[in-house]
């Protein structure tokens, strides 16, 4: 494994290329008796009762600015013509239409004649005649459809036709039921030993291009899983079916007007008892206050395996503020004070003309934690947790002094990133590692890089020209003066034995490296402690190992997971760490104990990635059902199950990376669906969605001051976003919260591109220099996208 030389690029010359029941006035749970009424809903007398309950010719009608004839081609290759008359300036709109069921080749159906007659009847508003004609046509020519699956086709076709008749402003709300109805019907057919009819049912709707672009667009990954469930045994073993059918009801939010119409159609009219039965058994409907949401907002919040998140799940209080009384927080927040002794600019951009002297620096170190607090620091943050809420050890004296020294030097030279002063990017390309490297981790001070490989080995590299240090032998440690202020520095020595023996042979080596072996399976996750003393690794062998970066050996193996461990991460204060696994649990650990402190269970879904909150009181996880959850580390009352305090749904594919903002208020998520979604932790709502990448997003980081967001993708690009301006616009009410989609051009500052390197890791140094790390993809490989296990 080799490094290529780091390269710098600039914006002008970029690198090329997831229960308690709710109150009855907010939630609708359909009664189990099919003849009962939803009495608290006012019936709508204007509901159109003339719904199609049988199949019709598949068509796609697209609005155009002018009047005219619209021609479309159905799945059987038959042209159909619809007369569309629209006013000028009307926006393009796709109407749902149910597909035509296929027939055998031995019995051809005269569909052209049928379409012509049907069109004439529709043009003359002969609704009853249209319905009678369809029934007669089906009874005469469509005999190939099985009598058992016929009610399923008729019910779903009837509902799709009902959705099509709704106005454009509310049609998207009714469309939410189509996908779960389709899945439950398909599973019913398979469970009742009608596998072939179930496959015909599946193909009949999934192959419809109109449904693909609207209803099924957010569920492509799940449809791929459903297609393989062809027997009862496979359904009984499927984790997806357990999650979809037995992990809760499918949650749908509707406005009051839409809910009244749905009640009229399902309960009062009783035209399709099969639909009513499925909705009663597997659905739960919640009333949204006000009018119907726009289609774009609903599209963004859809994609969860069980629909949207119920409002009650996000009502518990979350203390997202920072621990202001902790030493580390004080050091990080007082960088202006730390840099004042060097005459550097402070946070407000005001320079200090006082010269730097050794006397001033010594006084700063001595009085920093005993200094008089300002009025701003004495102000109590109502959103910050108490320091004793979660036991967090204080920093030791030498740790505090070391942090003051390092931050004093680095913050005095930190770059202030603005749209006119963008960061430079130093990119490291890992060669000969395609399909062999699974994960990367860089130290907080940007001097060490750890690489986790598929062959169960871990490599640690030095990113500067200094050799990696190691601890002295025990005989040498005994002779050291333990009262010395610099005892920790004296315990270490530079490993330069190679240079003494083979100075000529390795004089051209720029990076020293170490190899850590112990796991028996591929490495899936790495995390390095803040002070660079420890390294955590998780693997397919169900274990987590804690490595010492001083003795370069494994200190302890943490066992508890019963399936491969996907991710592991140190807490912001280094005392706790968390892990997540295929065994559907996330676990909280402490480096001083070998047993698990907390276990967070996610029902029927494996947990794939996690992230610590900056105040170390919460962790965020993402699972295979694409639901983001925030868990409280505070111990629950005895006998109570651990439940997430926040759940957020919106991603269409699995999430790869999570990141909290520097102030802890916002959670940023990104993954395979190429969406960067920003969530407000105070209430679990979606702030906005950033679009711009054309492939999966694997890496993400925020600048040291939290104003710049950087994302790395498999599309061979790194994009920089003005996160600070986005939050400012949100606070000022200037952010478009109706559509929830922010054009990339509005907040995207610059794009750096690589030739054939998929960015796996992004990191901002203490001075706001951007570091990028990626694995080079050979040009002779047919696959041009990076893979992540």
UniProtKB/TrEMBL annotation:
<dbReference type="InterPro" id="IPR007582">
    <property type="entry name" value="TFIID_NTD2"/>
</dbReference>
<dbReference type="GO" id="GO:0006367">
    <property type="term" value="P:transcription initiation at RNA polymerase II promoter"/>
</dbReference>
<feature type="region of interest" description="Disordered">
    <location>
        <begin position="1"/>
        <end position="27"/>
    </location>
</feature>
<feature type="repeat" description="WD">
    <location>
        <begin position="516"/>
        <end position="557"/>
    </location>
</feature>
<feature type="repeat" description="WD">
    <location>
        <begin position="600"/>
        <end position="641"/>
    </location>
</feature>
<keyword id="KW-0804">Transcription</keyword>
<feature type="compositionally biased region" description="Low complexity">
    <location>
        <begin position="16"/>
        <end position="27"/>
    </location>
</feature>
<dbReference type="GO" id="GO:0005669">
    <property type="term" value="C:transcription factor TFIID complex"/>
</dbReference>
<protein>
    <recommendedName>
        <fullName>TFIID subunit TAF5 NTD2 domain-containing protein</fullName>
    </recommendedName>
</protein>
<feature type="domain" description="TFIID subunit TAF5 NTD2">
    <location>
        <begin position="152"/>
        <end position="282"/>
    </location>
</feature>
<dbReference type="InterPro" id="IPR037264">
    <property type="entry name" value="TFIID_NTD2_sf"/>
</dbReference>
<keyword id="KW-0805">Transcription regulation</keyword>
<dbReference type="Pfam" id="PF04494">
    <property type="entry name" value="TFIID_NTD2"/>
</dbReference>
<feature type="compositionally biased region" description="Polar residues">
    <location>
        <begin position="1"/>
        <end position="15"/>
    </location>
</feature>
<dbReference type="InterPro" id="IPR036322">
    <property type="entry name" value="WD40_repeat_dom_sf"/>
</dbReference>
<feature type="region of interest" description="Disordered">
    <location>
        <begin position="39"/>
        <end position="68"/>
    </location>
</feature>
<comment type="similarity">
    <text>Belongs to the WD repeat TAF5 family.</text>
</comment>
<dbReference type="InterPro" id="IPR019775">
    <property type="entry name" value="WD40_repeat_CS"/>
</dbReference>
<dbReference type="InterPro" id="IPR001680">
    <property type="entry name" value="WD40_rpt"/>
</dbReference>
<keyword id="KW-0677">Repeat</keyword>
<dbReference type="InterPro" id="IPR015943">
    <property type="entry name" value="WD40/YVTN_repeat-like_dom_sf"/>
</dbReference>
<keyword id="KW-0539">Nucleus</keyword>
<feature type="region of interest" description="Disordered">
    <location>
        <begin position="342"/>
        <end position="366"/>
    </location>
</feature>
<dbReference type="GO" id="GO:0016251">
    <property type="term" value="F:RNA polymerase II general transcription initiation factor activity"/>
</dbReference>
<feature type="repeat" description="WD">
    <location>
        <begin position="690"/>
        <end position="722"/>
    </location>
</feature>
<feature type="repeat" description="WD">
    <location>
        <begin position="648"/>
        <end position="689"/>
    </location>
</feature>
<dbReference type="InterPro" id="IPR020472">
    <property type="entry name" value="WD40_PAC1"/>
</dbReference>
<dbReference type="Pfam" id="PF00400">
    <property type="entry name" value="WD40"/>
</dbReference>
<feature type="repeat" description="WD">
    <location>
        <begin position="558"/>
        <end position="599"/>
    </location>
</feature>
<keyword id="KW-0853">WD repeat</keyword>
